[in-house]
Amino acid sequence: MGKLVLGCIADDFTGATDLANNLVRAGMRVVQAIGVPATPLDADVDAVVVALKSRTVAPAEAIAQSLDALRWLQAQGARQVYFKYCSTFDSTPQGNIGPVTEALMDALQCDFTVATPAFPDNKRTVFKGYLFAGDVLLNESGMQNHPLTPMTDANLVRVLQAQCTRKVGLIDHAVVARGVAAITERIAQLKSEGISIAIVDAVSNDDLLRLGPALAKMPLVTAGSGVAIGLPANFGLAPSSQASALPAAGGLRAVVSGSCSLATNRQVLDFIQRGGAALAIDPLRIAAGVDVAGEALAWAEPLVGKQPVLVYSTAEAGAVKSVQGKLGVEEAGAMVERTIAAIARGLVDQGVRQLVVAGGETSGACVQALGIAQMQIGPQIDPGVPWCHARAEAAQGAGVHIALKSGNFGGDDFFTKAFTVLA
Q1: How many Å apart are CA 414 and CA 268, to the nearest integer?
Q2: How far apart are CA 11 and CA 372, in angstroms?
Q3: 3-class SS at 132?
Q4: Which segments does the entry list as coiled coil (predicted)?
Q5: What per-residue confidence (pLDDT) applies to 50?
Q6: The CATH number of domain 246-422, selected from 3.40.30.10, 3.40.980.20, 3.40.50.2300, 1.10.3720.10
């Protein structure tokens, strides 16, 4: 068995596959574990991504989960640790990015690390410490309306400093553009000033590739998935088509969506406009005690054998806030997640073996409901979203191809394109 070189901890399930996707594209063989495994690693891989559901839990619980993952990765011999969060850096004033970063630094006796959510392939760039989503600042991108982690400030130094006891600084674009020597020199300067964490600018993949070699000896890297493209070369690895090979796909096809992001709203609309079979579920009917999952599965059963079906709770920001006002933010989200997870399991019972799940929290709920313990990472559908293959308890141990899509990722035609890529 090959020696594990990179151990990754992701704060949600779609983020984990996003990271794993970039590592695979850069030549690493990757397995994604759903939660911290109970047994030692039994796979010939270069990297493991441990997927947690820790982004929106209490900071103390996020820290405990992350340290548990760290201990397991250290026991498998990981030489470097990567803490992965979303490319929109979304969190609350209490965390969890800052608290988890500092807990990992303490555990690894790490005196300095970097932080950057930059992912240029998905139009997430950092300049002068400010995070842009496309051509606008993060707080003007729609993320200010996120139902769980609204982002109203695009200044990452300020956002992260509010969550940390250590001092946070900046490695700006002028430094990054000069390459590894300049980056290394800037790190030394920041350390001499008592700064322990640095936001790093990146507006292109070239910036990330320049950053990669400067991180080679860093015990802990924290980032979105973009930085991953520059790390495999540090271990002597290069892109290879074999890294993304999956078993052949078969079975029925379906999409479930719990994301309310602007991108997912457009994807749902595109699927419907193309004549796709789609059913919207109403959170207020769930709250009223109606068996919405049962209704959705009854609707899908005669259709799914003929074409892909979509079941979604996606809604515009105003509608989401209305439901939250009636049910409460946490209860509204958890209730929809439970229902969509039950629908996903029921669809697999009906023979679905190609399943797309949209939404980070929704993906976590669905993977757990399907009884998936680990996933092999395959080819990319759109930047940040690969197809994966897993054995699922819900399929009596049979293989299922599954794609976990962050709400903000993917082109408008993603739900249609995904099945074309797999075919």
Answers
A1: 9
A2: 17
A3: strand
A4: none
A5: 97
A6: 3.40.980.20
